[in-house]
Amino acid sequence: MSYRLKAISRDEHLGFVAARSSVSHMQVPSWGDVKPDWRAESLGWFDEHDRLVGAGLVLLRPLPKLKRYLAYLPEGPVLDWAAPDLERLLEPMLAYLKDQGAFSVKMGPPVVARRWSAEAVKDAIADPQARWLREVEATAHEPGASDIADRLRRMGWQRTEPGGEDGFAAGQPRYVFQVPFAGRSLDEIRQGLNQQWRRNIKKAEKAGVKVVQGGYDDLPAFYDLYVETAERDRFIPRPLPYFQRMWTALTSEDADRMRLYLAHHDGEVLAAATMLTVGDHVWYSYGASTSRRREVQPNNAVQWRMMSDAHELGARIYDFRGITDTLDEGNHLLGLLRFKAGTGGEAVEYLGEWDYPLNKVLHKALNLYMSRR
């Protein structure tokens, strides 16, 4: 079968997303409004009967002084990745983006490769011989994932391997932690938490921690905690206008697309987090907390409130987003992995991000620049 690709309207794109149970929050039209330094466009794949069978949000980032672009489809596009004619789906995208002036295309197929149970992650952390999660025997291998990877390589796509001491690469995380909700009651989900999590939730309740849903005007309170968290956890914080723009863009598209939760105790906000929803997939997006009064467990309280609300919204997956791939006790991110593993969910490896160099010279120059940042 042959496919035709063209730009589609926001409404066409949203209609396609609405007909699917799970699409990344980075593959909805409003995400383009969150990224003003990129030019965003909605793409649609049409089959021989002129039916819309795929969609993708592409972000185009211009090179300084050149009308050439890096084309990026974060956690997308949304296609039938198991299709026997996958090549015929991707070739029109490359041709279209090349005509748009793209010198390189980066995408993140939403295809799961492997899964590790919470117990397997716990055992791996405790094993002094284990250095990387990727080297630990997975609990489950998703059928077809390795075949898709092989087909992409044969087409000329190059996988971006996890880099750095903590296993994170530039772009979107390849390893995430998810709690399956499908077919489970809220009580069953709570019973799936480890003893420490359940104890901490009770501590927060007993201490009088109140978790409330906030709005746009509460973003500065969230941001103050976020900056403190960035200093403590050694990452560069985004500016407040980014979150304000994110709120305005996402909630204008869907009132429940983004939510903000704040944990109050004795008149002070101790923790806050943002939650994103597309269909029946819910993400914990950004978290922030102060080092003060940690004994009242505000972080567990916020997470449990978000998990409870996600369950009420009909979520099939509660997604904690990225985790470190390293199992090194000396790494400051290992504590975050332990925290997420305590929910009783599973570590999930996606196929990762893939590059296609349309202009090999410019593509190589970009990679050299990124490696020196």
From TrEMBL:
<keyword id="KW-0573">Peptidoglycan synthesis</keyword>
<comment type="similarity">
    <text>Belongs to the FemABX family.</text>
</comment>
<keyword id="KW-0808">Transferase</keyword>
<keyword id="KW-0961">Cell wall biogenesis/degradation</keyword>
<dbReference type="InterPro" id="IPR003447">
    <property type="entry name" value="FEMABX"/>
</dbReference>
<keyword id="KW-0133">Cell shape</keyword>
<protein>
    <submittedName>
        <fullName>Peptidoglycan bridge formation glycyltransferase FemY</fullName>
    </submittedName>
</protein>
<dbReference type="InterPro" id="IPR016181">
    <property type="entry name" value="Acyl_CoA_acyltransferase"/>
</dbReference>
<dbReference type="Pfam" id="PF02388">
    <property type="entry name" value="FemAB"/>
</dbReference>
<keyword id="KW-0012">Acyltransferase</keyword>
<dbReference type="InterPro" id="IPR050644">
    <property type="entry name" value="PG_Glycine_Bridge_Synth"/>
</dbReference>
